[in-house]
């Protein structure tokens, strides 16, 4: 075999190794991007679940210290407001009771002391006129010892209850606004996470498409260069054949060179088929390399000559050290064609 053919085969081997490295890099990039997408999706789902549980009351949400303090003050204000309301209701009911008692006393001509004694004899509660007159006086006109209050003081006392109610209502509105603001922030956070997730997914798709286009462009350029080299080699072989015909060289040497040319053309066709399959989305591991791999460098370390082959497919692709390592690591498939390994044997040249 001529040196030019051997160099061409080595170039093809290097091209195959570069292709495998590129595919491995693309797959690693896809795995990294998928991991980022899964993390964002998990975080978004957790936020959505938190919002749903808070909305339906499945667990008690944790509020900030400011909100907790506001809730405590609100409870106290509501209790004070309820107490004032009950006190006002009792003061309103007291004059009505005294009026009914006065009607009963005016209808009878018996003196008050006699009526009290008759009440004791019959088991009824005695009536005190001073208590009735005091209870009949409105709350706004009574003070200690029965002295009436000024009108402005009475109005201020009446308005104090209204002010407390207004403060309680304002507290309720403030608390409602705080809760609504908290829910709005949670919803805004969910929307922001969703937009970030979509942006990252769009960037991943763009990077993936760019890597695929770049790899396809590099592959086409490499194949174009290989075709150019093949044409140059074909012209050289034709010139050599013409020289052989002119010089009447040995026919066996002519057959050997023809076999080398056929082998090289076959390798070029395999490269073209591999490029077409890669363009259609088929992985490179399903491609079928040539059944006969010509002797050269080791495909693993590329530092020594290949002296061992697989008996199943016949690929001479391992040096002595790499063959021993393959046996120790129990490699079950051929490195080039993925054919089952039935045994690795030394190749005798």
Describe the structure in your own words.
This protein has seven helices and three strands, in the order ααααααββαβ. By secondary structure, the chain is an all-alpha fold. Strands 2-1-3 form a three-stranded antiparallel beta sheet. A hairpin with a 5-residue loop joins strand 1 (308-310) and strand 2. The longest helix is centred in the middle third of the chain and has 97 residues, at 151-247. The two termini are 13 Å apart. 7% of the residues are buried. The model is unreliable at 106-150 and 283-294 (pLDDT under 50).
Topology:
Blueprint (H helix, E strand, L loop, with lengths): L2 H54 L8 H43 L4 H11 L6 H8 L14 H97 L3 H29 L28 E3 L5 E3 L1 H9 L15 E3 L3
Helix pairs in contact: 1-5, 1-6, 2-4, 2-5, 5-6
Task: Quickly describe the structure.
It is built from 7 helices and 3 strands; from the N terminus they run ααααααββαβ. By secondary structure, it is an all-alpha fold. Helix 1 (3-56) packs antiparallel against helix 5 (151-247), helix 2 packs across helix 4 (129-136) and helix 5 (151-247) runs antiparallel to helix 6.
Supply database-style keywords.
349 residues, Znf_RING, 7 helices, rod-shaped, single chain, mainly alpha, 72% helix, RING-type domain-containing protein, Herpes Virus-1, three-stranded antiparallel β-sheet
Strand order of the largest sheet: 2-1-3
β-strand amount:
under 5%
- Helix count equals 7
Q: End-to-end distance, in Å?
A: 13 Å
What class would the helix/strand composition place it in? mainly alpha
Order of helices and strands: HHHHHHEEHE
Q: What's the shape? A: rod-shaped
The counted number of beta strands is 3
Biggest β-sheet strands, sense, barrel: 3 strands, antiparallel
List segments where confidence is low: pLDDT < 50 over at least 5 consecutive residues. 106-150, 283-294
- Average pLDDT taken over every residue: 67
* Oligomer class: single chain
Q: What percent of the residues sit in helical stretches (DSSP H or I)?
A: over 70%
What gyration radius follows from the Cα positions, in whole Å? Answer: 51 Å
Keywords: Metal-binding, Zinc, Zinc-finger
GO molecular function: zinc ion binding
Organism: Heterodera trifolii
Protein name: RING-type domain-containing protein
